[in-house]
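Exercise 3.2. Students should predict the tertiary structure of the chain below and write it as structure tokens, then compare their answer with the key that follows.

Predict this chain's 3D structure.
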Amino acid sequence: MSNNVQDILDHTGSSLITLNCIVAGLANQLKTTQGTAAVEAAQAHALEVAKAYSTADGVAPDMKLITDFFNAHK
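Answer key:
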């Protein structure tokens, strides 16, 4: 694997981890200020958005990961 490809993979991984940290903070704040019901509503919305994505390219949202994420923040 060339360094360029590895750099791209490293940057992508770092970006995903960073995004997860940001969203986890938002989920925690949502639970703190509005309760578990708000987290459950956010989960339901996230799953609806995920269902709307096209899987034509063979890449789809991971519904289990979305569910696991929100369940961990309830």
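Discussion points: DSSP finds three helices and no strands in the chain. The first helix runs from residue 3 to 34.
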